[in-house]
């Protein structure tokens, strides 16, 4: 029943976009054709380049208008492309305007939008009117031609054909809406190179913020933890030295001396352990032997039983290994804290220049990027090394998180 309702349903925004498609498509198509035609005619004159510059700026503006319409009516948010650079000098600005990929892609969108707009208008307006005429064909004929007339095959077939076509129209309109969404994503958003630059800038900003926080935590831990422990150790050793400097004619208090030396040894062990914890956050010692040694050691400390499956045919670069190790540590921490899982599985492969890490658990599911489990920050860190994070976690589980990275940067 739900699939039937879905088949027959059309959102109001989709219908409005289809109705507006014809006038907007005609205006945009005429604009694009006029720009190309007049620009070609004026290309050998002084007015050619200024005309094309102004026309491309207009195409960029029309592309922004269509992008807003797609977002408002079709619910497809298309990321806006970066603003046009403004270098110094008229020649430099003219060169930037003429080579603006956003404007040329917007011009192409306006050309392709014309046939889609005409087809959408036909599906949303003309075909329903035609179906209404076909369904009530006998009634319209009686009104137009009063009096007796023989019943022909058209009288019999018109109503079923009209109903059949009317039933298919919602699906056709939704398919056209999907095509319009895809066309807008392809031509009105930033180019792939621009998206990559934006992703790298975002990842760099995230890494800088995280590294700043990490350095501040390291400084605080050294100041409040390790430094205080060393000060306590110095005091203990000073007290032991005072006991040894007892008056020559009196024997030193051996019990107190043993107690002070034992305390000093304990404080030394605590300090060494603290330093190891701090340095582990900078570069895990376990990675000296590669991921094949580091990942099993990491899973051994997990409170949730973890099955490890490794297929490491090649050793990735140092930065990639570190990213995979910290990604695995973060994911296993999420499993222990948030999933309620009883078992988990960690699989890692490294072959043909790609590294894949997969962590699966049988917990309650419902995890997603941006859901407060640290996955968004993890995805940003992976993006900095050209990696990607994919989360599959339906309610009720299981949760499967996959990280894919190149073996070398």
From TrEMBL:
It comes from the Bacteria. InterPro entries: HATPase_C_sf (IPR036890), HATPase_dom (IPR003594), Put_sensor_dom (IPR025828), Sensor_HK_TwoCompSys (IPR050482), Sig_transdc_His_kin_sub3_dim/P (IPR011712). Its EC number is 2.7.13.3. The keyword Lipid metabolism does not apply. The chain crosses the membrane at residues 12-34, 40-59, 114-136, 156-176. The keyword tRNA processing does not apply. GO terms for cellular component: membrane. Residues 319-409 form the Histidine kinase/HSP90-like ATPase domain. It is an enzyme of class 2 (transferase). This is histidine kinase. It comes from Streptomyces kaniharaensis.
């Amino acid at each position: 029943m739900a699939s039937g309702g879905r088949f027959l349903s059309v959102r109001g925004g989709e219908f409005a976009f289809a109705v507006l498609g014809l006038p907007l498509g005609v205006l945009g198509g005429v604009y694009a054709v006029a720009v190309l035609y007049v620009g070609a005619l004026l290309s050998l004159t002084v007015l050619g380049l200024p005309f094309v510059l102004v026309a491309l700026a207009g195409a960029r503006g029309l592309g922004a208008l269509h992008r807003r319409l797609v977002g408002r009516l079709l619910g497809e948010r298309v990321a806006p492309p970066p603003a046009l650079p403004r270098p110094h000098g008229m020649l430099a600005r003219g060169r930037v305007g003429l080579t603006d990929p956003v404007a040329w892609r917007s011009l192409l969108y306006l050309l392709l939008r014309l046939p889609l707009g005409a087809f959408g208008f036909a599906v949303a307006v003309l075909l329903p009117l035609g179906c209404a005429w076909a369904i009530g064909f006998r009634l319209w004929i009686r009104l137009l031609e009063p009096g007796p007339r023989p019943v022909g095959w058209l009288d019999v077939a018109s109503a079923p054909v009209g109903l059949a076509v009317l039933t298919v129209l919602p699906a056709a309109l939704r398919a056209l809406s999907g095509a319009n969404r895809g066309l807008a994503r392809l031509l009105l958003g930033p180019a792939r190179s621009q998206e990559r630059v934006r992703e790298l800038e975002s990842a760099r900003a995230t890494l800088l913020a995280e590294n700043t926080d990490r350095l501040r935590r390291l400084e605080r831990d050294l100041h409040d933890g390790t430094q205080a422990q060393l000060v306590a150790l110095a005091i203990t050793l000073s007290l032991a030295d005072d006991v040894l400097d007892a008056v020559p004619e009196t024997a030193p208090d051996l019990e107190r001396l043993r107690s002070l030396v034992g305390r000093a040894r304990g404080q030394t062990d605590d300090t060494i352990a603290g330093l190891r914890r701090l340095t582990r956050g900078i570069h895990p010692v376990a990675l000296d032997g590669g991921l094949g040694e580091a990942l099993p050691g990491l899973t051994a400390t997990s409170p949730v039983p973890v099955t490890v499956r490794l297929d490491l045919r090649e050793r990735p670069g140092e930065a990639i290994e570190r990213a995979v190790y910290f990604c695995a540590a973060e994911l296993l921490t999420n499993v222990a804290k948030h999933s309620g899982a009883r078992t988990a599985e960690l699989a890692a492969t490294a072959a043909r220049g790609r590294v894949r890490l997969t962590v699966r658990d049988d917990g309650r599911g419902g995890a997603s990027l941006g859901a407060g489990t640290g996955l968004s920050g993890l995805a940003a860190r992976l993006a900095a090394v050209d990696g990607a994070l994919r989360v599959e976690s339906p309610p009720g589980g299981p949760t499967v998180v996959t990280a894919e990275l190149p073996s070398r940067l």
